[in-house]
Write a structure and sequence with these properties.
Elements: H1 2-12, H2 28-39, H3 45-52, H4 56-59, H5 64-70, H6 73-81, H7 90-100, H8 106-125, H9 132-147, H10 154-174
Helix pairs in contact: 1-3, 2-3, 2-8, 3-6, 5-6, 7-9, 8-9, 8-10, 9-10
Bound molecules: zinc ion.
Zinc ion binds near residues 29 and 54.
Length: about 180
């Protein structure tokens, strides 16, 4: 099922590259999110499968019905839970993530924290067309989302805090 999820996500994201990240294939990102959860001791299969699929509804033509049919309804619900509604303007979507974070399910919270860590790691390492100020603003926003999601996996929270601190120091030095 995990390989099936990786293949499904690879297929759905096949024409996408990470934003500005040296044309890195999109699939690298959800695989890293799943791998980080494993490194932090998570091993429940619905969680890992959903983490691999976490961007397919938001960013590709995949639908909740399709994910339900290929996997199951819990996985589809979880993926939907961590998906932004792309019909809303960017700022509204970002505000909604902060507002909705505390009410998310256990597994959705874990995916959110891992996703933010992986996004921050990416833009600290790979060139991206963002100023240090914009990256710092992302860190501030990610901290607000994670504030509503933390407390479920000590190691994951610790990795987030370390990534945030490292990012803040690195970006402040670039200002
Ligand atoms: Zn993501």
């Amino acid at each position: 099922m995990i390989i099936k999820a990786a293949v499904f996500a690879a297929e759905k994201h096949r024409y996408q590259r990470r934003k500005g990240f040296n044309q890195i294939p999109y699939i690298n990102h959800p695989l890293k999110v799943a791998n980080l959860l494993i490194e932090c001791g998570e091993n429940e299969s619905n969680l890992l499968i959903s983490s691999i699929l976490h961007d397919v509804i938001e960013d590709t033509d995949a639908t909740e019905a399709e994910v339900t049919e290929k996997f199951n309804s819990e996985i589809a619900k979880l993926v939907l839970e961590v998906s932004d509604n792309k019909e809303l303007p960017y700022t509204t979507r970002k505000e909604l993530q902060v507002k909705k974070a505390p009410g998310l399910s256990h597994d959705a919270k874990l995916i959110k924290v891992a996703d933010k860590i992986c996004n921050i790691r990416d833009f600290l390492v790979y060139p991206v067309d963002w100023s240090p100020e914009r990256k710092l603003a992302y860190l501030d926003w990610a901290k607000l989302v994670v504030a509503g999601c933390r407390g479920l996996n000590e190691k994951l929270d610790q990795v987030f805090d370390e990534t945030l601190e490292k990012g803040t120091n690195q970006l402040n030095a670039e200002l």
